Automatic annotation (TrEMBL):
GO BP annotations, alphabetical order: non-motile cilium assembly
Membrane topology: Multi-pass membrane protein
Transmembrane segments: 12-37, 49-69, 81-101
GO cellular component: ciliary transition zone; membrane
UniProt-recorded name of the protein: Transmembrane protein 216
Disordered, as annotated region: 166-204
Keywords associated with the record: Cell projection, Cilium biogenesis/degradation, Cytoplasm, Cytoskeleton, Membrane, Transmembrane, Transmembrane helix
Taxonomic classification: Eukaryota, Metazoa, Chordata, Craniata, Vertebrata
Gene expressing this chain: Tmem216
Keyword DNA repair: no
Species per Swiss-Prot/TrEMBL record: Heterocephalus glaber (Naked mole rat)
Amino acid sequence: MAPRGKRLSSTPLEILFFLNGWYYATYFLLELFIFLYKGLLLPYPTANLVLDVVMLLLYLGIEVIRLLFGTKGNLCQRKMPLGISVALTFPSAMMAAYYLLLQTYVLRLEAIMNGILLVFCGSELLLEYGQDLKCKSFSPQHMRLTAPALRSGGSRWLGKGRTASHQHQHLGIQPNEASGQSPNQGHGLRLLHSTTGRGRPAPF
């Protein structure tokens, strides 16, 4: 995430995604009516018509996923959704080129609409690449800002541990005594430093 006061999301890219979404919805509806027109009035082979309609539905799925991931990656400043959107831009552009050049019958209206889609794809690809570079350039700076704070915090905790150890040694307290454990715990039979009246060490 970006620090406060620093915006990494691209406003032009978000505007392009918004306009592209509305434009593609209009494009999809117009293409359905155009296929209906061509199927009724032109000698359109049935197999080719079915193939073009199926590819149009596939194109719809690709474009919706591409725009959703692109918008999420731009607004949340995440590289993975941006990368998915960039990868889906190429099949989306290939679909637009197919309907522009390779389908059975290409109307002038279709040529104009698919040309606009190719302009959208090219512009968004350039802006997404720049946005990805911006996110990569921000990540090392963010790590450099947080690393000194972590090092100073670790040194502070180490200093506290050394100070407590020196205090215990100065007072003659063993580490197990400072932690509240019994000095004889886990050592079996042990002799006390004090002696009995006969001068012999007393068994524990």
